[in-house]
Design brief:
With 445 residues, the protein is an alpha/beta fold. The protein folds into two domains: 111 residues, Enolase-like, domain 1; 257 residues, TIM Barrel. A seven-stranded parallel β-sheet has the order 7-8-9-10-11-12-13. Helix 8 packs parallel to helix 9 and helix 9 packs parallel to helix 10. The longest helix is centred in the first third of the chain and has 24 residues. It is globular and about 60 Å long. The relative contact order is 0.16. It binds D-glucarate and magnesium ion. The site of D-glucarate has 10 residues, from loops.
Length: 445
């Protein structure tokens, strides 16, 4: 082949460019973890009521930013609290210097630190891999099997956000106040009528078609009346769930089961505590039963095969030890005849996006997932842009690579500052509840 000078030069340039690209490619796949930044944050939490007491004034989370040798940064979010910040700091020793591709290598050791610490790190690794390889997180794990993820309405009894006792909390460090300056405008919901109204407003705003009542707060009879009021509001056409968080005795749970059996109950969630009590209620009442309390670890499954407490497990990638753990749970659950739903605690947008990917790669999730996201104040999230939209009771799986959302550095810094100033180091619903109802105890109904 005879090449003139110009052709030689062009060929040489192409070769150099090729080499450069090859180097760039090699560099892009060097996902050695060089730095991990853990940022504890506090986000505003409205006064939601549960068996544990009253939420607020903030909920805590830990944000993870994992940098790799080639400059990719993977992000993660996991549960909050100082104990977990410390666990994540400790986990650095296991993770630094390893490749983000090798997250299963440190899974075993990281689990000795806690499942939720590992879950946050696994998410950050998967996010880094997704960003580096230009794939969505769910594509890395065999999905997505769905692009639209359905959610249930998560209905909590609650106080007004500007209730004087709540505003009097010395831990509040933001500008929230009364009326228009209140944290939110969902109002006081402590009667069956106001609960039915809340369910209707949630339906109008977010389009939810399945409704979960967080019970275990008031006399069971009032809570059943609230469930009935919701049912009537939707003409008996929307599936319902009720979750007293194990605050009922077996006797109460059986009595209440009789009173709800004429309603479209999708499942009866943790009315009582412990597998054998759950098994007894399930056998005697015949309702479909679910849990995020008595089967929450792989170690609990063997006993559950004997006690038969449930039909549905609410998986949670923080609690079970990562998105990959939820996929493994799905396979096991399938063989045991259990279906999956998804559990939720207060969370920000990174966890929200991660939950969308969980549902996208776990076909055994056949029930609409829970999420606290509608209770997150608009503008309070730590991701770029607005809060992720919920429309028609569904959320779209993000299209961007990795987990599909980006951290907003200013919002993260503000939420960290709130954490620092409010002084909260762990969730403590009991103390606020005792200020609202002196002498309150988590006694059993
Ligand atoms: O946020 O108060 C709450 C809930 O009660 C939460 O703590 C539970 O873990 O959402 C959860 C549930 O389904 O039991
Ligand atoms: Mg529950």
């Amino acid at each position: 082949m005879n090449l003139d000078r110009r052709q030689w030069l062009a060929l040489a340039a192409a070769a150099v460019a090729g080499q450069f690209n090859a180097r760039a490619h090699a560099a892009a796949s060097d996902l050695t973890i060089t730095r991990i930044k853990i940022t504890p944050i506090a986000l505003p939490d409205p006064p939601l009521l549960a068996a544990s007491g009253c939420h607020g004034p903030y909920f805590l989370r830990n944000i993870i930013e994992l940098s790799t040798a080639d400059g990719v940064v993977g992000i993660g979010e996991t549960r909050g609290g100082l104990h977990l910040t410390k666990a994540l700091e400790k986990a650095k020793g296991l993770v630094l210097g390893k490749s983000a591709f090798a997250y299963r290598q440190f899974a075993r050791q990281a689990k000795t630190i806690t499942n939720d610490a590992y879950a946050g790190l696994e998410l950050a690794c998967l996010d880094a891999i997704g960003r580096a390889t230009k794939r969505r997180l769910s594509e890395l794990l065999g999905g997505p099997i769905r692009e639209q993820i359905p959610f249930a309405s998560y209905l909590f009894f609650r106080y007004n956000a500007d209730h004087p006792v709540i505003l009097d909390d010395a831990r509040i460090v933001d500008g929230r106040g009364k009326g228009d300056a209140a944290l939110d405008q969902w109002g006081d919901v402590r009667t069956p009528e106001s609960m039915a109204e809340l369910a209707w407003r949630f339906h109008q705003k977010f389009g939810f078609k399945v409704h979960k009542l967080k019970a275990g707060v008031f006399e069971p009879q009032l809570e059943i009346a609230a469930l009935r009021a919701i049912n009537e509001r939707f003409d008996g056409k929307h599936p319902l769930r009720i979750d007293p968080n194990a605050r009922w005795s077996v006797d109460t749970a059986l009595k209440m089961a009789k009173q709800i059996e004429d309603m479209p109950i999708e499942y009866y969630e943790d009315p009582v505590g412990g597998q054998s009590a759950m098994g007894e209620v399930r056998t005697k009442c015949g309702l479909t039963m679910s849990t995020n309390m008595c089967v929450t670890r792989f170690e609990h499954i063997a006993e559950a095969i004997r006690t038969k407490p449930i039909d549905v497990v609410l998986c949670d990638h923080h609690g079970w030890g990562g998105i990959t753990a939820c996929q493994a749970l799905g396979t096991i659950a399938d063989k045991l005849g259990w279906a999956l739903s998804q559990h939720s605690n207060n969370h920000g947008g990174v966890t929200m996006a991660a939950m969308l990917h969980v549902a996208a790669v776990t076909p055994q999730i056949t029930f609409d997932s829970d999420t606290h996201y509608p209770h997150l104040i608009e503008g309070a999230d730590i991701i770029e842009g607005t809060n992720l939209p919920i429309r028609g009771g569904q959320m779209k799986l993000p299209k961007q690579h990795g987990v599909g959302v980006n951290l907003d550095a200013d919002k993260v810094a503000r939420a960290h500052e709130t954490y620092r100033r409010c002084g909260m180091k762990q969730r403590d619903d009991g103390s606020l509840m005792r200020r609202l109802a002196p002498g309150w105890k988590r006694s059993q109904f």
